[in-house]
Amino acid sequence: MFSKTIHKKTFLELTNQELYEILDLRATVFIIGQDIIYVDTDHKDQASMHYFIKDNDVIVAYCRVLPPGLRYLEHTVSRIATLEAYRNYGFATALMHEVMRDLPGLPIRISGQAYLKPYYEKLGFKTIKGPYIEEDIWHYEMLYEPLKKA
Questions:
Q1: What domain range is 21 assigned to?
Q2: For a 10 Å CB count at each end of the chain, is N or C smaller?
Q3: What is the pLDDT along the chain (150 residues), one digit of tens a residue?
Q4: Which helix (H) or strand (E) segment is 137 a member of?
């Protein structure tokens, strides 16, 4: 039905149009869709790797990967967002699996919204802390630690 081709770009590789669409997607999902009043431009995008899926040249699913030390000691996946019309087609899962493949053997930490805790557990994340309030929404700090091969 939909292509799940994943694009990966550094901040400097993003086109102006892609950056605009990413910021629009995040505003649509978080600020409008979830009624979160916050400043999305946190100055972490410049150091992040951006993963996204397009449909007809429109970005419909997105996440970013922060390098270790920018938020947590481990790599961090954040701003995971999918336009409402594209939910339940596995886009976010495809993005998360791609991130895990790109960081083989490395731990990944997230601050996930509480209602998504079972989803992240299915991906292999374990709860480290929480629940706690972040941007007026309940969250859990969760860690993915892949098994080390002997």
A1: 6-108
A2: C
A3: 677 899 999 999 999 999 999 999 999 999 888 888 888 899 999 999 999 999 988 999 999 999 999 999 999 999 999 999 999 999 999 999 999 999 999 999 999 999 999 999 999 999 999 999 998 899 999 999 987 655
A4: strand 137-144
